[in-house]
Amino acid sequence: MKNPNVELIELLFKTARLMKQEMSFTNNLMHLSVLQIHALIFLKHNDNVTMSDIADYFKIELPSATNLINILCDQKLVKRYENPEDRRLVMITLTYGGKKLLKQVISERKKKLEKVLSYLSDQDKTALFKIFKTLYNKLQK
Predict the structure, then answer these.
(1) Phi then psi dihedrals of residue 51, to 5 deg
(2) DSSP 71-86
(3) pLDDT tens digit string along 48-102?
(4) Domains in the chain, start-ordered, CATH in brackets?
């Protein structure tokens, strides 16, 4: 008999892979990677963001953060501007197009998650919520 932790870990990875497939985006959003979408979400929730903030948040090197933002700038989803208080600092913000696309992404993601959750009973959803809340609270500390 397998170790229950091993079975749980295997099941988590298999479920995550299937959910990733289920959550993949349709044609007009396919040009964005998961990291690019998460960068847009990060920018939506944070003001006065620098390249270092992005690198720190995503645990990536500064050149990788710059590359990520360059791609989003080329697609006109984000823009750079000088910090008025310190011109050496380059700030990043969402453009109108970035906000509009992000709204589509969030809407589509919500629909897909609702479909996935529809496979569960209300009781299972409550139990799953409690489990994820416990894990989130423990990992956040």
Answers:
(1) -60, -40
(2) HHHHTTSEEEEE-SS-
(3) 899 999 999 999 999 999 999 999 999 999 999 988 888 888 899 999 999 999 9
(4) 4-140 (1.10.10.10)
